[in-house]
Amino acid sequence: xxxxxVRILIRNSVVAILEEKGDFVSESLIxxxxxxxxxDDYWGRIINFNEVQRLELIVEPSHGTNYWxxxxxxxxxEVFTSARxxxxxxxxxxxxxxxxxxxxxxxxxxxxxxxxIPDNTIIKNYKNExxxxxxxxxxxxxxxxxxxxxxxxxxxVFDKDLNFVFHKFAQLFAWGDGNDYEINxxxxxxxx
Length: 192
Known about the structure:
Strands 2, 4, 5, 6, 7, 8 and 12 form a seven-stranded antiparallel sheet that branches. Helices cover 10% and strands 49% of the residues. The protein has one helix at residues 2-21, and strands at 24-32, 41-48, 52-61, 68-75, 91-96, 102-108, 114-115, 121-124, 131-139, 143-150, 156-162, 169-175, 182-191. Strand 10 and strand 11 (156-162) form a beta hairpin. The N and C termini lie far apart (40 Å). The chain is mainly beta.
């Protein structure tokens, strides 16, 4: 028992040291429908991509969650509209519909218009398995926001650059369009 306690203390100290150095911050959360009139659930942190190089989300819907959305709404500053998307608030989100065994992606641009994504079904025969979403600022030839999604076997199922470079603030949230949902998320924020 004493050895187990020492191991836990050492492990927690290592995580705390890494977080204090600013290499990364990690947090677990559950987003869910909060009530009859409260469909949207937000992570309380605004992500500032001027300070964060990469955001990694390990997403796993709870058993029985058949209809859900998980999105990142982007803004030019730390102020966000209450609408899910709109003029100057691009939205990228995962979609799982009831009665369908598919995980899809959707994107609304900075004009509030849905942009077609060819073959937006990224996982067929999807059964609420874990997926990993990575969002990062890419500085190859031009600065863009790069979104990569991997399935539970770490295979890339989506990889796209989104050109809204002036929208470096993001807000993570989920919703179910009136349906009950629960999504478990492990976040990793990596500093620049």
